[in-house]
Design brief:
The protein is built from 11 helices and 5 strands. By secondary structure, the protein is mainly α. The chain has a 3-stranded antiparallel β-sheet. Strands 3-4 form a two-stranded antiparallel ribbon. α2 packs across α5 and α6 packs antiparallel against α7. The longest helix has 25 residues. The two termini are about 30 Å apart. The C terminus is likely disordered.
Length: about 350
């Protein structure tokens, strides 16, 4: 149901609300949660723009005029200046936020069958350089050495297992967040993953099965007992299957999560990690490595997994540059082997 203010009864806004309601009722495989969130945000922003600033005179008429060039340009001008935000902030909206607004308009126009002339998109940021092999290996060696010596806190145990999956498969944060324990082979020799839907794909990508390295298997053997301990309290009531935590990656501590209606809930440890939670794991790991490497560089001769401290450039705190580096190498390996894929595609299964 629409969450936009209801005091305005302009035909265009009523049509906008109907379109957004219909799109948000689509199943997840047709319209993802993130896209639905952007649609709702756009709906609320148009209401605020109309209520406080008026837009153009004909923007009140119908959805076609609301999404017409003059109305849209005025809306984007207001958005750029931070005047239609729904979070009570006054900061200007970023290029990324404006691009999301425009994409949401396109989806609504297409759904409603009204013409839409897309305005010029704000420039997309340049892709961050991928993480070089030396840095990736050092990150693995740094955490692996601590876990192997049993001096690592749970965060590092979980990260090492997650990092191993990324190195073996090039999985994204969204892919990792979807993984279930059942996607692992019993002997941990393989893992099944499903990539996110790209663009407006009619069907989800097929399930893939990847062979896991010995380092990743060792990391999972350390993490899975920890996961079992964390999720135990949620699985005592076997009468309700939905209470069991099936996802592979779970939280280590209490988390506060904001619901779509604006309310917040506190979740206990052992609950599934969502994509943002996965991203925070990699952010924390990169920060920890960077801080500890800076300290080692100051000492210079301090032992670090039995080797000298190498020349160091800080590790990016985002997962995406790391994932793209692994993906590039997996594709290159496939090309070198005559196009023979390293992945076993298991068709007919769903996550």
């Amino acid at each position: 149901m629409s969450t936009a203010p209801q005091q305005l009864a302009a035909p265009s806004l009523m049509a906008l609300s109907r379109a957004v309601d219909a799109l948000c009722q689509l199943p997840p495989e047709q319209m993802g949660a993130s896209r639905k969130k952007h649609l709702r945000a756009l709906e609320g922003a148009f209401y605020r723009a109309m209520e406080k600033h008026g837009l153009t005179p004909d923007a009140y008429d119908d959805l076609a005029t609301l999404l017409g060039p003059e109305s849209v340009n005025e809306f984007l001008r207001l958005a750029r200046s931070g005047k239609v935000r729904g979070d009570r902030k006054t900061a200007e909206e970023s290029d990324a936020q404006l691009r999301a607004r425009i994409r949401a308009m396109e989806i609504i126009a297409q759904h409603a069958g009204v013409p839409f002339k897309r305005p010029e998109m704000p420039p997309a940021p340049e892709l961050a350089p991928v993480v070089p092999p030396t840095s990736r290996a050092l990150l693995l060696e740094h955490f692996q050495g601590q876990v192997n010596r049993s001096i690592s806190e749970p965060f590092r145990v979980r990260f090492l297992a997650m990092y191993g999956i990324v190195l073996d498969t090039g999985a994204s944060s969204g892919t990792l967040a979807k993984q279930h324990v059942a996607h692992l082979a019993r002997d941990l020799s393989t893992v099944r993953i499903q990539r996110p839907r790209q663009g407006r794909m009619a069907e989800p990508p097929p399930m893939e099965e990847w062979e896991l390295s010995s380092a990743t298997r060792d990391a999972l053997n350390a993490y899975l007992p920890l996961r079992e301990q964390l999720t135990k309290r949620h699985q005592q009531d076997r009468q309700h299957e939905q209470n069991a935590v099936k996802h592979l990656w779970v939280s280590l501590e209490h988390n506060t999560r904001r619901l779509p209606d604006g309310t917040s809930v506190v979740e206990p440890p052992g609950m599934r990690l969502r994509p943002r939670g996965v991203q925070r794991v990699f952010f924390r790991a990169a920060e920890a490595l960077n801080d500890e490497m800076e300290q080692l560089l100051k000492e210079r001769n301090a032992p670090q997994a039995g080797t000298e401290v190498p020349e160091w450039s800080p590790m990016p705190t985002r997962l995406e540059p790391l994932r793209r580096a692994v993906d590039d190498e997996l594709r290159q390996r496939e090309d070198e082997q005559g196009g023979v894929p390293q992945v076993i595609v298991v068709r007919g299964r769903s996550a």
